[in-house]
Amino acid sequence: MNYCEENVPDSSGPRSIIYRRTADSAGSPTSGWEPLAPTCWTDSVPAASGEPAVELTEAMIVEQFHRTDFALPQAVIQPPDGATLVNLPVYFELAWPDAGFEPSEIDTTTLVGHEVRIRPTLIGVTYVTGDGSSIGPTTSLGGGYPDGDITHTYAAPAEVGPYISVEYGGEVSVDGGEWTTIPSSATVDGPASPLRVLASKNRLYDN
């Protein structure tokens, strides 16, 4: 709940600061902009003198969506400790970090006097294994041994850097209104996780 919803529930919101400046008879400014007062009645505030009102457009919302600080998907790998064996299944799981906005979290900003809330959605996840293969896109977040459904077996020794790529969609709510789909998407790659794929050898020893 924002300030206007809590304190002035009948207002249009969001809370904004009114600025003014003086002008001569020709409309040329004679002073700089200075704050006048806050208001929650933003729909009653006239446009700046001599300037047309700026409308919030879909293009502005799409541009703001692409400015979102999306959460970078982190790859959790089993076996742990950055090493595995040839022909041993490796389990991948997507973990969301604390930083950035993950699916269902809300990023709130103000555009041309309107409160705009953007809520990322998950379109698909691609697990890039680092050896030329990938799994997905899928909506699965994977998991650890033994129930995880995202696995990959490396066929040869190598040093690889698997990572996770996420395609985000988004929803938008303007001034507390209903959520609607943003007609765009953004693809974000998470950091690579160094992984050594080792070969094992069996030897027979005489007793």
Explained architecture:
The protein is mainly beta and 207 residues long. It has helices spanning 3-7, 58-66, and strands spanning 16-20, 34-39, 74-78, 83-85, 89-95, 107-111, 114-128, 134-138, 151-153, 158-160, 163-174, 180-181, 186-189, 195-198. Strands 6, 7, 8, 11, 12 and 13 form a 6-stranded antiparallel β-sheet that branches. The protein starts with a helix and ends in a 9-residue tail after the last strand. The mean pLDDT is 89.
Q: Spell out the helices and strands N to C.
A: HEEHEEEEEEEEEEEE
CATH superfamily heading of the largest domain: Immunoglobulins
- Which structural class matches the secondary elements? mainly beta
Task: Give me the CATH fold name of the largest domain.
Answer: Immunoglobulin-like
At the first level of CATH, the class of the largest domain is Mainly Beta
Low-confidence stretches: none
Oligomerization status of the protein chains: single chain
The helix fraction, in percent, is under 10%
Terminal residue distance: 76 Å
Write the layout of secondary structure elements.
Layout: H1 3-7, E1 16-20, E2 34-39, H2 58-66, E3 74-78, E4 83-85, E5 89-95, E6 107-111, E7 114-128, E8 134-138, E9 151-153, E10 158-160, E11 163-174, E12 180-181, E13 186-189, E14 195-198
Parallel strand pairs: 4-14
Antiparallel strand pairs: 1-2, 3-5, 5-9, 6-7, 7-8, 7-11, 10-14, 11-12, 11-13
